[in-house]
Specification:
The termini are far apart. Strands 4, 5, 6, 7, 8, 9, 10, 11 and 12 form a nine-stranded mixed β-sheet that branches. The protein has 13 helices and twelve strands. It folds into two domains: 96 residues, Alpha-Beta Complex (Sufe protein. Chain: A), CATH 3.90.1010; 270 residues, 3-Layer(aba) Sandwich (Rossmann fold). The model has no long low-confidence stretch (mean pLDDT 86). It is of the alpha/beta class and 398 residues long. The structure holds adenosine-5'-diphosphate.
């Protein structure tokens, strides 16, 4: 009979989450007054503890305490993990003797030290972001509106999503922002901001009152969607009426004092975007949105030439759907070629403003009516929009 090498080991079960962790990005080891030493490993991504494990060289209660705590904090955010108390751990362990409570206290202290380790390592990124926000605020001159026209060579590249998230992000930083949707045939901004069944009113001077976002009072919105009876009403207006309506939407809205006016333009380089540029009373600056596969086509180049011919300065290029961000491991897979936006920018002597990955949560947020920068501010897409907004706000007026 063959000797079973596993004999004697099979019954020895290793407790769940006992041991070290591969790919950990935070760690701490602590020795308690009882001379037990415990150690925690964490893998934290965007404030969430994706995985945790721990060891203890102490008694079975100490092992039980560290493993239970490691299990409790897996998949929760670091601040919640830090608020866990002895009673919380007691509620998940079986028959824990009063005399061993110090084992739970040691486990909690060691976990807090591991979270501190992660926060220390991530401090520079947070500080840098705050510095960028201060720089952007210093760059914006109160009382001078900057009109940002979000344009694309064709539809479906995420132009409206970019416009909504940039506007929301600028408002969250503290700027007063107007967002206007002149995408006559596909006014999607009301849906993206959850603004259904809204009625628009006029002032005595005949100006339209924008809709003020409930939780972001410094973001005001105007969209053709507010004038349609139902979300799926088709828009079949003919040329001159369309031109007139675009003019009204751009110039006859009572925005009040705003720092930025973000304009979601119709796609392409046809009559409608032309009508926008021709009728805008303020001097505007363009932001071009493209997808990685789109940059190989002539669409973006056409948008660049269109802007140049109309004397519309281009602030830069945004690459949307730039690789797929896995919601589980957060690795980025370049489904389409990545980096095309940056290459295009350098070929035309333009600034590359940043990229946004494809994330299922972007579409989910859009459908829910809460932009991703508000719904999941720690996501890669939200941070991308924030960086782009900061780059725009800190840029020199063109
Ligand atoms: P456009 O204004 O260029 O026509 P939209 O902003 O309406 O494009 O976006 C088209 C679709 O793509 C929407 O369903 C939107 O939710 C989705 N989308 C846009 N950007 C992303 C992204 N980065 N990741 C995943 N889905 C996206």
């Amino acid at each position: 009979m063959e000797h079973d090498v596993t004999e004697g080991y099979a019954s020895k079960k290793v407790p769940l989450r006992f041991g070290s962790l591969k790919d950990a990005n935070a760690n701490a080891r602590l020795t308690g007054p009882c001379f037990d030493t415990v150690e925690f490993w964490l893998r934290v991504e965007k404030n969430i503890i994706e995985e945790a494990s721990a060891i203890s060289d102490g008694c079975e209660h100490s092992v039980q305490a560290v493993c239970a705590l490691a299990d409790m904090v897996t998949t929760i955010d670091v601040e919640t993990a830090k608020s866990i108390q002895v009673e919380d751990v007691l509620s998940v362990v079986d028959e824990f003797p009063e005399s061993s409570i110090h084992c739970i206290e040691l486990a909690i202290s060691c976990l807090a030290a591991a979270i501190d380790d992660w926060q220390r390592k991530n401090e520079p990124a947070r500080e840098q972001l705050e510095r960028l926000k201060d720089l952007a605020k210093a760059n914006v001159k109160k009382g001078e509106i900057r009109t940002l026209m979000v344009m694309s060579g064709k539809g479906g590249v995420g132009k409206s999503t970019v416009a909504v998230n940039i506007a929301t992000s600028l408002a969250s930083i503290g700027f007063s922002v107007g967002l206007v949707d002149v995408d006559i045939h596909g006014p999607s901004i009301p849906t993206m901001l959850g603004l259904h069944h809204i009625q628009v009113f006029s002032t005595e001077e005949g100006k339209m009152e924008p809709v003020v976002l409930g939780d972001l009072f410094n973001l005001k919105v105007m969209s053709l969607g507010f004038l349609l009876n139902k979300d799926d009403d088709p828009v079949i207006w003919r040329g001159p009426l369309k031109h007139q309506l675009i003019g009204q939407f751009l110039n006859d809205v009572n925005w009040g004092p705003i720092d930025f006016l973000v304009v979601d333009c119709p796609p392409g380089t046809g009559d409608e975007p032309l009508s926008v540029v021709q009728q805008l009373k303020h001097k505007a600056e363009a932001i071009l949105v493209t997808t990685p596969q789109d940059v190989a086509t002539v669409d973006v180049a056409r948008s660049i030439n269109f802007s140049k011919q109309l004397g519309l300065p281009i602030l830069g290029i945004v690459e949307n759907m730039s690789g797929f961000e896995c919601p589980h491991c957060h690795r980025n897979t370049p489904i389409f070629r990545v980096g095309g936006g940056a290459r295009l920018a350098s070929a035309y002597g333009l600034k590359f403003l940043g990229s946004i990955p494809i994330e299922a949560s972007v579409g989910i947020a859009t459908d829910s009516g809460i932009p991703i920068v508000q719904r999941a501010p720690q996501s890669a897409a939200a941070r991308g929009y924030e960086q782009i907004s900061l780059a725009l706000a800190s840029s020199e007026r063109r």
